Structures are given as structure tokens and as C-alpha cells.
């Protein structure tokens, strides 16, 4: 039993300092709790230290390179310092990686300062439950500390999945956490896995001027995304020179000197200088003492939670990748906040995945929100659909944007917008009006009546909404 805490602020202990953990800590501190965050690998978690922030910083350089590749069409050419024409721009991957790691470290430090300002105590070490109301920490500096808790939030995240037949060596066979140690650009990079992470890295490294082979076990890239969007992306990747091996399942990855070989299950082999494994993630839920508290896991090892982030154990909540609900930093943060609002008695709305907007940071980007085509085609919800290619948009023409589209889904009859897809440059920014429409149940007419700037890409969203208008019958 923990020491009773009558009349004192609630004691919240958060295990894991990623977005699931630190955003919850800020809410709990705001609501007057005494908050401790236990973190083993750096505040900000994988999101800031190894995954989201580093990859999007790398992709910022890739985006610049993609923009530059369109320069000739817009009348711009490059010269070397002697005035001779130069046809390509080079990337210094070492400098890019150093920028990436500095930016990630700075952001982690920012989070630390913010938590300190809000009065949150941060304990460096590996935490595990001892029952439902006590967390025991193996301190990084040595020794252990036991922290009493009125509520515990587990936000321990996930790690890259590896296979015994494809062990990363950190030099040429790499997980996404290890790519920033590269000081020289790979001469030929094989990316295994064509989900979001594999597609993002493959697209980015190709934009950086590296030869890329993408090994995809499915018949097209991004099997979880809108099929039309994935087709546009795959066409663009191939047109820009990527070799995409579809229906090709990796059996093993081996290294001999400077060469890696990916062997496929049908016996074919692919050679390259480096291999990046993007095989998905596994939850970090082992050795957390979950059994001592009665926290139930699902068959994949993820913590089972309800829509207010409660686990099966009273007073123990979980948020983020360790729950496997939807592996996004934004969802982790919201699950963490919801847990604290719930525990500390504030107004709380259960998590609604149909309101989550997400983006694949490839070139072009693919942003989605709400109901999607697959569910509509499967008859899960009736909807009217419109697809408008960006090629017809005046701003797109001016900017030399040829690929991409806007799709809107609305309820038949009412015209209420229930979802959408944007494929194009900076789709992550363009999807926001659709997110607002979905969150606020706006109709296509309301969307269409709002002014858009002329010329603008967002004009295509308003135009798509106009196309779904039904006149008086
Ligand atoms: C390459 C890549 C790119 C991504 N890009 C995006 C993106 O652009 N946008 C987006 O929304 N999402 C993105 N994601 C997903 C996002 O990174 C995760 O959803 C997010 O990190 C989950 O947050 P979390 O708090 O659950 O876990 P994490 O961020 O993994 O943080 C968990 C923290 O807890 C620590 N920890 C684990 N066990 C313990 C323990 N026992 N004691 C103490 N500390 C512990 C971990 O070391 C870690 O620091 C990306 C993922 C990958 C792989």
C-alpha cells in the first residue's frame, strides 16, 4: 500500500517523457497535481530524439532539394563559380545530420526547461510499476528510488522492429534511429518496408540525390493509405528514378564488407551500399512490472486502454505508442492529456480517431483526415465523393506542381463533410480546413462559401466542396 495522501495534491507519476508523457505532465501540473516524469532516454522521447523530429528535419532539406529540382521549369539554372552551367546541387549529409541531431537535442532541452518551469520533477532512469500506486526507478546515475503515486501514466513508447535474419549493425544495416550517424551519403540505399516510415525515408534520400531501391511486400507502397494517393506517390517516385520492387518480401539482410545484400523470399537478391529497415514498431512494455499491477496487454504486447486512456488496473493509465491505438505523436499527446483530465476530474471528451489528421511526409505529401475511401467503398458509411486534380489549379500551374489532388467526402443529403485527402506539396498544411470541417460538422456549402485567396492551392478545396453542392430539387 502507498502512503495515504489526505488533503494533499494528487501525486501523478508518468513513466516515459515522450509526447504521451510530457504533454500529460503539463496538463496535470496545470490542474494542481504534484507531477513526476520518469524518463530513460531523453525528454521528448523517441518523437523528439530519434523519430519524428529528426526525420522531419532531414525531410526539410529533402524538400528544398525537391523544390530546386523544379527550378529549370521555372526558368532558373545554376552556374558554378566560373560561370559554367552546373546541373546539380549537392547535399553534405554529414552537415545535414549534425543539424538534425542538434535540433533534436535543443528541442529535448526546451521540453526539459518547460517542465521545470511548470514545477514538474524529472527523474532520469528506468521506471517500473510495483503495484498500482508505486513506481520504482533504476536511476541513470545509479541506485533506485521509489515514488508513491495516486495515479500512474505509462507512456513508454515503442522501438523499431528487427528480425533475427536482418540484424542492424549500426553502420550499413540500419534502423531509422541510426541513420543520423552516417557521415557520408550511401551510394545505393535499399529501404525495406513501404509503410509510412519506409516511404518517407525512401522519398527523402532520393531527393537528397541518393540512389534508392524500395522493397515493398505489397502490390503498392503505403498499403494503409488512400489507394489513389499511394498510386500518385508511387508513380512520382518511379518517374524520379526510384526502383520500387513490389510484392517483394525480405527474407534476410547480410553484409560483406562495404556491400549489403537483401535476399527476398523468392530467392532474388538486391545489392546496395546500405540498408534501412522500416519494419514497423514493437511496444516497450516488457519489464515494466505490469503484471504486479494487473495491467492487461493485447496479443501484440500493447497496453489495452479505453477511450479515456484507462488500463485494466485502477489508477493506471496509458498513452501513446505503447497502446498501439494510432502511432502518432499528436495522438500520444492527446491520450496523455485525456488521461490527466479524466483522473483529475476536468472536463474530458473521449478520444475520437475520426478527427485525427495525419500526413505522410513524402514528395508529394499525403494528408488525410476523417473517414476514408476504403471504409466508404466497403459500405461502412454512405458518402458522396469528389476528386479534383491539382494540375488544374492556377497556383499549381504557376509553381510547376503537376501531381496531387484534393478529395472530399460528405454525407449524402446533408452535405456534412466527413473526411478528405490532400496530395501535394505541403499537404500537411492544406488539410487543416478539412480537419476543422470534420471536427465541427461543417457542410460542403459552408466550406465553399468561405473565401480562399486567389490564386491558392486551398482554392481547390473550396472548389471540391462546390462540386458537391446540390441545387434545389
Ligand atoms: C521515423 C518516424 C517518424 C515519425 N514521424 C511522425 C510525425 O511526423 N508525426 C507524428 O505525429 N508522429 C510521427 N511518428 C510517430 C511518433 O514518433 C510516435 O507516435 C510518438 O513518439 C509516440 O510518443 P510516445 O510518448 O508514446 O512515445 P515515445 O516518443 O517513444 O517516448 C517514450 C519515452 O519513454 C521512455 N521510456 C520507455 N520505457 C521507459 C521506462 N520504463 N522508464 C522510463 N522511460 C521509459 C523512452 O525511452 C522514450 O524516451 C514517427 C515515428 C517514426 C518511427
Q: In percent, how much strand structure appears in the residues?
A: 15-25%
How many helices? The count is: 14
Ions, cofactors and other bound molecules: flavin-adenine dinucleotide
The poorly predicted ranges are: none
Shape: globular
Q: How many β-strands, per DSSP?
A: 24
Q: Based on the structure, what is the oligomeric state of the protein chains?
A: single chain
Mean of all residue-level pLDDT scores: 96
* Euclidean distance between termini CA atoms: 69 Å
Largest sheet, order of strands side by side? 7-6-5-2-1-8-19
Largest sheet: 7 strands, mixed
Q: Could you say which structural class the secondary elements and strand pairing correspond to?
A: alpha/beta
Helix content: 25-40%
What is the alpha-carbon Rg in Å? 24 Å
Task: Describe the protein in words.
The structure is a single chain. The protein is of the alpha/beta class and 473 residues long. It contains 14 helices and 24 strands. It has helices spanning 19-30, 45-49, 52-69, 93-117, 196-207, 227-239, 290-293, 329-343, 373-377, 394-399, 427-430, 432-440, 444-449, 459-467, and strands at residues 11-15, 34-39, 78-79, 85-86, 121-129, 134-139, 144-148, 151-154, 158-160, 173-174, 188-192, 211-215, 243-245, 250-256, 259-264, 269-272, 274-277, 281-283, 316-318, 357-360, 365-370, 384-389, 405-410, 417-424. The chain has a 7-stranded mixed beta sheet with strand order 7-6-5-2-1-8-19. The chain has a 5-stranded parallel beta sheet with strand order 10-17-11-12-13, covered by helices on one side. Helix 1 (19-30) packs parallel to helix 8 (329-343). The chain is globular and about 75 Å long. The protein starts with 10 loop residues before the first strand and ends in a 6-residue tail after the last helix. The site of flavin-adenine dinucleotide has 37 residues, from helix 1, strand 2, helix 2, helix 3 and strand 5.
